[in-house]
Amino acid sequence: MIAHRGGGSTAPENTIAALAAGLRHGYRAVEFDVMLSRDGIGVIMHDPDFGRTVAGTGSIAATDAADIARLDAGSWFGSEFAGEPVPLFVPFAEYCKSHGIWMNVEIKPAPGHDEATGRHVAETVRRLFPAESGAGSDARGCASGLPLLSSFSAAALRAARAAAPELPRAIAFEGLPDNWERQARELGVLSVHVDHVQLTPALAQAVKAAGFGLFCYTVNDPGRARTLLSWGVDAICTDRIDLLPADFK
């Protein structure tokens, strides 16, 4: 089980507070989003524009990282989180590494920044995990503890592969297109990520038979989670870390 955006529905998404909430619930695996600031620094944010999790107008791609880091990313969720900042990618990943939290890093490029974001994420992860990324990984497994780089953007994944081919990658879809396997093989990915609502037993079997890992998002019902696991799904991302324990079977 993987905590969606750090702490699911228990804390403001994509913050250090979310990671701490995940740890309190026993989660040692998280998913989070990275996009680039105007000055080319990775920040932990899902939306390209301000207004939902941070107040005001503007966008990540048009704002420098130092200014983004001063924004309040907690008040929208609850007054007890007022002042919780937008994290930068490096300290956020370092927090995960120091606490033994495995990372699914979703490369979430703002429009027009696919290649730059993919390259930045891959280069940053390689720098943060020098021993693990130099251990002969062939991007077919995460046994060494390397983060998994995922994206809906094929261009971002190509750039990540060019920058650090040894890092494991995953391609994400809402529903599986007819050419999903061709895309997955062309990109050399470890796993395929899909919206659980659009998955069927036959599609799950096809992904597994093709030799890929299968990851579903965002599953918040225990019964549905059990069904997906029975279909052979390897990992489930959830908002309800308070309802679905990290060792859910």
Key phrases:
alpha/beta, TIM Barrel
SSE topology sketch:
Blueprint: E1 2-4, H1 16-24, E2 29-36, E3 42-44, H2 65-68, H3 89-98, E4 102-107, H4 114-128, H5 130-133, E5 148-151, H6 154-163, E6 169-173, H7 180-187, E7 191-195, H8 201-209, E8 213-217, H9 222-230, E9 235-238
Helix pairs in contact: 4-6
Keywords: Hydrolase
Domain GP-PDE: 1-248
EC number: 3.1.4.46
Percentage of residues in helical conformation:
25-40%
Could you spell the SSE succession in H and E letters? EHEEHHEHHEHEHEHEHE
Q: Can you tell me the CATH topology?
A: TIM Barrel
Strand content: 15-25%
Determine the number of helices (DSSP H or I, runs of at least 4 residues).
Answer: 9
Whole-number average pLDDT?
95
- Counted up, domains total 1
Radius of gyration: 17 Å
Q: Strand order within the widest sheet?
A: 1-2-4-5-6-7-8-9
CATH H-level superfamily title: Phosphatidylinositol (PI) phosphodiesterase
Secondary-structure-derived class? alpha/beta
Total DSSP E strands: 9
Query: How would a crystallographer describe the biggest sheet?
Result: 8 strands, parallel, barrel
| pLDDT < 50 runs, ≥5 residues | 136-141
Shape: globular
**Terminal Cα separation, in Å?**
9 Å
Q: Would you state the CATH class?
A: Alpha Beta
Provide the CATH architecture.
Alpha-Beta Barrel
